[in-house]
Amino acid sequence: MKVADLGAALSPGDVLSPIRLNELAPLPAPYDAIDPASLWKDLGAEKTGARCGSLDGVCALSVKTSPDAAEAGRLVERFRSGLAKLLSHDGNWAFLQPLVLTLENCTHCQTCAEACPIFVGSGHNEAYRPTVRADALRRLSARFGPGGSRLKGALAGELSLNADTILRLAELAYRCTLCRRCAQACPIGVDNGLVAHELRKLFSMEMGIAASELHAKGSELQLTVGSSTGMSPAVVRDNVEFIDEEIREKTGLNIKTPFDKEGADVLLIHNAGEIMTWPENPGAFAVLLEAAGISWTLSSELVGYDAVNYGLWYDDVQFARVALKHVEIARKLKVKKIVIGECGHAHKALMVVADRLLGAGAVPRESCLTFMEGLVESGRLTLDPARNDFPVTLHDPCNVARAMGIVEEPRRILRRIAPRFREMTPHGVENYCCGGGSGFAIMTPNNFAEWRTLVSGRLKMKQVLDAFAGEDPATPKYLCAPCSNCKGQFRDLFRAYGVWKRSRLLYGGLAELIVNAMADVKPGFIEWGMQ
Amino acid sequence: MTPLPLAVGIGLAAFTAGCVLKAIRYVRMPSHVRWELYPIPVGRLGQARTVAEEILTLRMVRERNRGLWLPSLLFHYGLYLLFALGLTILVSGAMAGAGVFSASVRGSAALSIWGALGIACGSVGVLGLLLRRGFDPGIRASSTPGDFLNLAWLLVLFGVSAGTWLFADRDYGVALGFFASLLEKRGVETPPWFVAEALLLAGFLAYLPATHMTHFFGKWFTWHAVRWDEEPVVRGGSLEREMQRLLARPVRWSAAHIGADGKKSWGEIATGDRP
């Protein structure tokens, strides 16, 4: 597939750059014996033939395809209008300079290509080459963007602007996890991950096209009901009360999670998915904070109990709405700071990207990783590393490591509490994305979950398994993944490949591992078994 | 002014103006949100060391794109050498023409070796890059007509420069005399090889600001103003004022959930009722 093919008219059923299951990057034994076809799901003839699946035989967006001529014309008109806004001061001041620098300075040297875990994991499927999206946007900008001309278009390369191009480009914007490993590899500093982000914005903010899990069932639900999980304030209180009961029973400690405590030192905001799916994580946080004698609280106000901010991945306005709500709730509660739970994108959203929007007077925000390191180092927790005498490795969430440089803090904790900790390769700021980044972990339409399992998560799966190479398959092992979104992806990966059965490997957060090492907690906080 | 000095003058002026205007355009772009990317070198010294290593050894290409590294390194060293040589000739020729030196400037063996090295590195490098671009499937897939034009133009330019060196101006005495003559307002003999080289170079310089080759300064922005920019907002500081100004700008995006009317500001849209 070439960039110009994005606008090609195909016969029904044809796919530009199909997934070739026999070319996927190999996994170590015994996972090499798993036939990828057994984990794959074909879209079916109808959707494969439609524009939705005609890129790679995968469909992430629920967009009406096969528009008639009038609809196709409107699509083109709206795309052009969005392109002009994306490249204008007023329309896109927040990202204009990085975007224009990226569009104007790439030398097409392909130094980024091998850095992309999706491109490599797929067996070098040309659709996933990290430069494809950026090249498409460059070509369309040169010809149809502000100041565009035929001459500029001719030099930039051919790409026709039609409904096929637009709808395939929309799909293609959702084949990149925005992990920015390609940007890190670029000698010029060009950021192809940013281009995927900007394309998503154009589609959402101008054309109303976005992954429903991120928009309708994501940020819209969060702003309306309080959480993208659908939990209302009353439900979240009930659930946390239930978690407290469980934790009391499990630890023997008298835990009661405080809500809406004015003037607390810490407002802890979890990804609400933890409360729904991994209750042991908020439970572990409660144990740590109580044991360390911290004045803390959760919020039960709308949005205040869910740290997610899906706008970070597709829409600047939705992003700003959620970020401002988080700090406003903290301000009203008069807390000294916000501590963000184990959720990578929530870290980057509230601590980095929103930083300049919130202004100098906004409540301070801290990562739970630096905060927990402080608790561990304070000596207020009695820790017995012998309780964690099993192999442990650490997955660095991209938004925490590559986007924020928080690398050593979780390692200093692990060296204190996990005697059999080992690194995976590569790690730290050069880690591989879990394959579920930028919202993918919660996206399951059509065959997208299968694509995540087989393609986008492939290199991460490989390096996690490699980290435990040589260990007895029967020995319980722990993958520490301090990020809800990443855990969602590991849940799906581990389930699909039968990882517990084959390798006795469990994934979980960092807080659970610390509590598991606490001498004054009943032993066995981590429960081994299939998740 | 005779046609050749005019063409060279236009080429140099277009190059300078094009680069300056492009850089000013980057500088004048609104402040963006933080979008840093680690690793971020510690302190200005660390940043300077990283940049120097990148310029002098093309470290990232060496580590991640080994097949392209040697041609790219040779090509860049060819450009560094010839750019420095060109600047030296231009400045010393012009100074001699202006009468700063009492003796007239002459070509030399040192300049000759300097030029030969630059041309050799540049020619081999650009040929290697062109071959990689033409035959490496990955690079070819993302190459544009503009990419081929840039390299082909440079290949011809290096070739003609080699011809000039071999047949017309081995010690760069003609080039020095040419720049000296501009200020002395006298005519100078220019062999055809030299004329062809000067015209190709002038055209290339005028064209360069419209290409991605401006990454020689664009890179300063991508690294310092984006990747390594962690500047926080300080109360009463210029960044805070700039953010307040930008948040007051109108929103014009059209999707229904935005609720923009072309008048409401970013601040109002983000904090007000949703549609």
Describe the structure.
The complex is a heterodimer of chains A (531) and B (275). Chain A has 26 helices and eight strands. Chain A has helices spanning 45-49, 69-86, 89-92, 96-105, 117-121, 131-144, 150-156, 163-172, 181-185, 192-207, 215-225, 233-251, 272-277, 280-291, 311-314, 316-333, 344-353, 355-358, 368-378, 398-401, 408-417, 448-456, 458-467, 484-497, 499-503, 510-516; strands at 266-269, 296-297, 337-340, 365-367, 392-394, 421-422, 477-480, 505-508. The longest helix of chain A has 19 residues, at 233-251. With 275 residues, chain B is mainly alpha-helical. Chain B folds into two domains: 3-227, Transmembrane di-heme cytochromes, Chain C (Fumarate Reductase Cytochrome B subunit, Up-down Bundle); 238-271, no CATH class. In chain B, α5 (109-135) packs antiparallel against α7. The longest helix of chain B is centred in the first third of the chain and has 32 residues, at 66-97. At the A-B interface, α2, α3, α4, α6 and α7 of A face α3, α6, α7, α10 and α11 of B.
Notable characteristics:
heterodimer, A: 531 residues, mainly alpha, Rossmann fold, 3 domains, 4-stranded parallel beta sheet, 26 helices, 47% helix, B: 275 residues, Fumarate Reductase Cytochrome B subunit, 2 domains, 70% helix, elongated
* CA distance, first residue to last residue of chain B: 66 Å
Instruction: Tally the beta strands of chain A.
Output: 8
How many β-strands of chain B, per DSSP? 0
Q: How many structural domains does the protein architecture of chain B include?
A: 2
Question: CATH topology of the largest domain in chain B, which one?
Answer: Fumarate Reductase Cytochrome B subunit
Strand order of the largest sheet of chain A: 2-1-3-4
CATH architecture of the largest domain in chain B: Up-down Bundle
